[in-house]
């Protein structure tokens, strides 16, 4: 897990926690744990969340 540099993701229409977990190679539970104030049943377009990616393409070198 990239514990140093989380990705700031702005919720877009159609985003779900599952689709974001797949996109960033993480889990829904990790996204929820990182964003404690997040209501997983009520994502809002424009809402900002942080995601720790496990994908090589999102790691900062």
Notes on the protein architecture:
It is a single chain. The chain has 61 residues and is an alpha+beta fold. It has a single domain, classed as Roll (Membrane-bound Lytic Murein Transglycosylase D, Chain A). The chain is 23% helix and 13% strand. It contains two helices and two strands, in the order βααβ. The chain has a two-stranded antiparallel sheet with strand order 1-2. The longest helix is centred in the first third of the chain and has 7 residues. It starts with 6 loop residues before the first strand and ends in a 10-residue tail after the last strand.
Assigned CATH class: Alpha Beta
Mean pLDDT: 90
Termini separation (Å)? 14 Å
As for the CATH topology, it is Membrane-bound Lytic Murein Transglycosylase D, Chain A
Helix content: 10-25%
Largest sheet: 2 strands, antiparallel
Our count of helices gives 2
Structural class: alpha+beta
Any guess at the CATH architecture?
Roll
Kindly state the number of beta strands: 2
How many discrete structural domains?
1
H-E string: EHHE
What is the oligomeric state here? single chain
| Percentage of residues in strands | 5-15%
Shape: globular
CATH-wise, what's the superfamily? Answer: LysM domain
Rounded Rg: 11 Å
Q: In order across it, which strands form the biggest sheet?
A: 1-2
Pick out the low-confidence regions. Answer: none
């Amino acid at each position: 897990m990239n514990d140093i540099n989380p990705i700031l993701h702005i919720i877009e229409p159609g985003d779900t926690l599952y689709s974001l977990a797949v996109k960033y190679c993480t889990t829904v539970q990790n996204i929820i744990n990182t964003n404690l104030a997040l209501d997983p049943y009520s994502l809002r377009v424009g809402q900002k969340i942080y995601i720790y990616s496990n994908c090589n393409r999102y790691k900062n070198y």
